[in-house]
Design goal:
mainly alpha, elongated
């Protein structure tokens, strides 16, 4: 009997000590931290908002690529596959009439072919450079409406309003300043796209794709 007692006594003591050791203590929560009802969530009432999520065009300097990417960003934010409310198509927002003039007759094919769109842009640039060649020679370096006239500004404005309207603007010394349907004017494009180097673009009479 004593032998069993000597074995059981330590086991009983260990059990008693363990039961006290693992008994959870009662936690007292300070009154300031008690939640007695629903609380107001600060978000999104006090969230930080961004004024604009528009991405900027890639900075390519004053090169030809810089010129066409900046112009494309202004026209469509660089989206090859967009059509605006007036039916202008693609990255550079060409109208059907201009496309047909350059030898492109399938609008769906044009809209889904980025390589073709780049070719059309370059071809149209060459065409406008031919039409405006005398005006480029005459007016580049002059100041009209407070803005120095550059070749790239002239050709960007021609992309917006047509070469004929750019001629009227230059030859009237800024009096005939045509706006497009979205409020962009010849003078705005001449200013915004001034100073790019597009000297390597060859003027071509009636070029076609």
């Amino acid at each position: 009997m004593r032998k069993w007692t000597s074995y059981l006594f330590p086991v009983i003591m260990i059990f008693i000590l363990m039961s006290y050791g693992f008994k959870p203590a009662k936690m007292v929560i300070p009154e300031a931290f008690r939640v007695n009802g629903p609380t107001e969530v600060l978000f999104p009432k006090h969230r930080t908002t961004l004024k604009s999520t528009m991405a900027a065009p890639p900075f390519l300097g004053t090169s030809y690529n810089g010129f066409k990417e900046a112009l494309a960003f202004k026209e469509s934010q660089g989206n090859y596959f967009t059509t605006n409310a007036l039916g202008y198509l693609g990255k550079y927002q060409f109208g059907i009439g201009t496309l047909e003039l350059l030898g492109v007759y399938n609008a769906t094919l044009f809209l889904n072919d980025p390589v073709l769109q780049e070719r059309v842009f370059h071809t149209n640039l060459s065409r406008n450079k031919w039409i405006l060649r005398r005006d480029i020679k005459r007016f580049v370096g002059m100041v009209i409406n407070g803005q120095e006239i550059t070749e790239s500004g002239i050709l960007a404005a021609a992309h917006l309003a047509g070469a004929g309207n750019v001629k009227k603007y230059l030859r009237s010394y800024g009096e005939l300043n045509v706006d497009d349907d979205f409020g962009s004017s010849v003078s705005y494009y001449i200013k915004k796209f001034s100073g790019y180097d597009i000297s390597h673009v060859t003027p071509k009479k009636n070029p076609r794709i």
